[in-house]
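Batch job 17 of 40 flagged for manual review because the log was empty.
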Amino acid sequence: MMPTRQGSFHLFRLAGIDLFLHWSWFLVAAYQLTSRERSYTSPVWNVLEYLTLFGIVLLHEFGHALACRQVGGQADLIVLWPLGGVAYVNPPPRPGAQLWSIAAGPLVNVALIPVLIGLSLLAKAGGGAPPDVLAFLRTVSFINLGLLCFNMLPVYPLDGGQILRSLLWYACGRTRSLQVASAIGLAGSAGLLAVAFWSQSMWLGILSVFIALGCWRGFGQARVLSRVAALPLHAGFACPSCRMAPPQGAFWQCGKCRQPFDTFLTGAVCPHCGASYPTTTCVECGRRAPFEAWLIAPPKL
């Protein structure tokens, strides 16, 4: 299960990336603010603390999205919800591209560590910084470090688990790496759930369930990849983006009659209703291209 745009509203668009915020974020924000109302002398600092958390998560997700674009992938949507954020990234199906797209998010948190430490040192060096300022900087530093450490756990689909999957991709291939990472993630989610019961943490328990669902989805994706990899390929065609030949089979759905068909077998025309499609989506990388761009020129004799 992944956060979607359902129940979310559009905040803004930056660098071609649409940001959506789920309505429940405000309920959780209100709960967190009231539970920490005695942390500062003024509730303004509690609000500023939560807005800073919002900013850190947003920078993290933009790190994913911009890195994905840097390697030629597609990334144009970020959804923020109470348990964090999700950047919908679709890097090219290469382990290096996948690795950079995922690692860039935690690297943003790493870059923030010296910045926050520097601000804390400046506040202390002045000698006259109010206690609220010092408490705020200390809390924000702890939040950033905590998000980094938790995200780097080798538990799929957390960033650490996806980085592990990308590294395994080099050794055992795309499908097997996803299977292994999902299995490790499922075991990790069980451990996190045990910690949630021990610490009586409702949020960690909810997050553990979502992690387990993500692992189950990973197993499903691995099964699909295995079936697709075993299929014969269409000769004479290749994706203009990832250069992979398309598999033979009804993997494309007509937008008019909703029937599946093999677009390369019918020349991008639905055999059920006759609808024509000038562009075709790649099963491997998910990118669209004109049907003519898929044609491979025959070798010259």
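Reviewer: the log was empty due to a logging misconfiguration, but the result itself is present. The chain has two domains: 8-152, 233-301. Unflagging and moving on to job 18.
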